[in-house]
Each structure stands twice: as structure tokens, then as C-alpha cells.
Amino acid sequence: MTTRYVVIEVPRVEVRGLKNGIHTPQISADQRWFMIQDTHAGGSIGDGYEDREAADAECERLNDRFI
Which domain of life is it from (predicted)? Predict the structure, then answer.
């Protein structure tokens, strides 16, 4: 049986708008975050995780539900 949920590393993307007089520094291109991908449906689960350990723990919890 294949693993249903896997952790993937993705580049961090920032959506920016313009506000008069407000400047926010850009996000470095090498910043990453971790998403949980559903291999059966092709979608992502949750909003993303800052650290790999938290994403791995949640992924393991989700996979345990489908064994």
C-alpha cells in the first residue's frame, strides 16, 4: 500500500500589495516551508509548516488514520 500523505518542501511565496507609505522587506528566495501533499487526491493539507519536524509529525498522524 502506498503512503497517502507526504511532506514536500516548497519555496515561500509572498503576495504583496501597495499601501501608501508602507514598505515591507522582501522574503529571501531561499526561504522554504513544508506542505503536506495528498498523493491520492493531489491536493495540499493545511496552511504549511515552518519546520520539517512539525510537518512530519502531522503527516505521520494523518497516515496512521488511513492504515
Answer: Bacteria
